[in-house]
Automatic annotation (TrEMBL):
It comes from Magnetospirillum moscoviense. Coiled coil: none annotated. Pfam families: Nitroreductase. It catalyses: FMNH2 + O2 = dialurate + 5,6-dimethylbenzimidazole + D-erythrose 4-phosphate + H(+). This is 5,6-dimethylbenzimidazole synthase. Residues 26-193 form the Nitroreductase domain. The lineage of its organism: Bacteria, Pseudomonadati, Pseudomonadota, Alphaproteobacteria, Rhodospirillales. Homooctamer.
Length: 247
C-alpha cells in the first residue's frame, strides 16, 4: 500500500507558540484539592476534555476506558465516606512523626468540586487476546492512565482543576458505582473551575516531599549504569531550572 499525501500530517514540529503552550500546560498542571469553585462545568468544555482523554494512546487501540460522570450528591457522599474510612487507615500506616502532618493534608475535593469522574478500564473491551498486551497484561490499565493524563492536561488548558483521589478501597468504589468485575476503577477524579492554581505541588510546599533532580534519575544503558555525560547532565539541569522558573 502506498502512502498518499493526504495520509500525512502537514507539519512535523508545532509552531513555537503552540509548543510553548504545551509545555506551559504540562508545567502548570496541578493536583487540585482545595481551590474548587461550585460553578458547573459547561458541557462543551467537559466534552473537549473527554475527547482529549478518548484520543489517548491505547494498547492494540483497545480504548478500554469509560467515563462515569458523578454529579449525584448521594453517590458522592458514599464515595466521600469510603475516602474517610480509607484515609483513617492510611494515617495509621505512617510513623508517628509523619502521621500528624499526613492528617493535616487535604487529600480530596469530592464534595467541593461540582463534578466527580471515574475513569474505568474494561479489561475485556477487545476480547482476551489483545495486540501488545500478550506479555504485559497490565498494559490496558496503563493505557487508561494515559487517558487520565490527557484529560488532566486538557483540563488545565481549559482552566479546570483536577484532583485524583486514590485513598479509597477499590472494592467499595466498585460497589458504589456498580462496576462489573471485569471493569477496574482506575482513577476517581474531582473536576471543576478553580479560584487559582497553586504554583507548586502542595506536597512540596507543605514539606511532605520535594521534586527530585532529573539528572539523578537518568542512567546509561542499564539500571545503575553510568550517569549521563557532562553535556547532557548540564542540559538536564538547565531544562529543570527552566521548568522550575515556569517554562
Ligand atoms: C496515581 C495518582 C494518585 C494520586 C495522586 C496522583 C496520582 C498520579 N495524587 C496527586 C499527587 O499528590 C500529586 O500529583 C503530586 O503531589 C504532585 O503534585 P502536582 O500534581 O504536580 O500538583 C493524589 N492527591 C491527593 O490529594 N489524594 C490522592 O489520593 C492522590 N492520589
Amino acid at each position: 500500500m502506498t502512502e498518499t499525501e493526504s495520509a500525512r500530517q502537514p507539519e512535523i514540529a508545532l509552531s513555537d507558540e503552540d509548543r510553548r503552550g504545551l509545555y506551559r500546560t504540562i508545567l502548570s498542571r496541578r493536583d487540585v484539592r482545595g481551590q474548587f469553585l461550585s460553578d458547573p462545568v459547561p458541557d462543551e468544555v467537559l466534552a473537549r476534555v473527554l475527547v482529549a482523554a478518548h484520543y489517548a494512546p491505547s494498547v492494540g487501540f483497545m480504548q478500554p476506558w469509560s467515563f462515569i460522570l458523578v454529579r449525584s450528591p448521594e453517590v458522592r457522599a458514599r464515595v466521600k465516606a469510603a475516602f474517610e474510612a480509607a484515609n483513617a487507615e492510611a494515617a495509621a500506616l505512617f510513623p508517628d512523626d509523619q502521621a500528624a502532618s499526613y492528617r493535616a493534608l487535604k487529600l480530596e475535593g469530592i464534595l467541593d468540586a461540582p463534578l466527580n469522574l471515574c475513569i474505568t478500564c474494561d479489561r475485556d473491551r477487545a476480547g482476551p487476546v489483545v495486540l501488545g498486551r500478550t506479555h504485559m497484561p497490565e498494559m490496558d490499565l496503563y493505557s487508561t492512565v494515559c487517558a487520565v493524563e490527557n484529560l488532566w492536561l486538557a483540563a488545565r488548558a481549559e482552566g479546570l482543576g483536577v484532583g485524583w483521589v486514590s485513598i479509597i478501597e477499590p472494592a467499595r468504589l466498585q460497589d458504589i458505582l456498580g462496576l462489573p468485575d471485569r471493569v477496574v476503577p482506575v482513577a476517581y477524579l474531582c473536576l471543576g473551575k478553580v479560584s487559582h492554581f497553586l504554583a507548586k505541588p502542595e506536597l512540596a510546599s507543605k514539606g511532605w516531599r520535594q521534586r527530585l533532580a532529573l539528572s539523578d534519575l537518568v542512567a546509561m544503558d542499564r539500571w545503575g549504569g553510568d550517569a549521563p555525560d557532562p553535556e547532557l547532565a548540564r542540559a538536564l539541569d538547565d531544562a529543570q531550572a527552566w521548568a522550575e522558573a515556569g517554562g
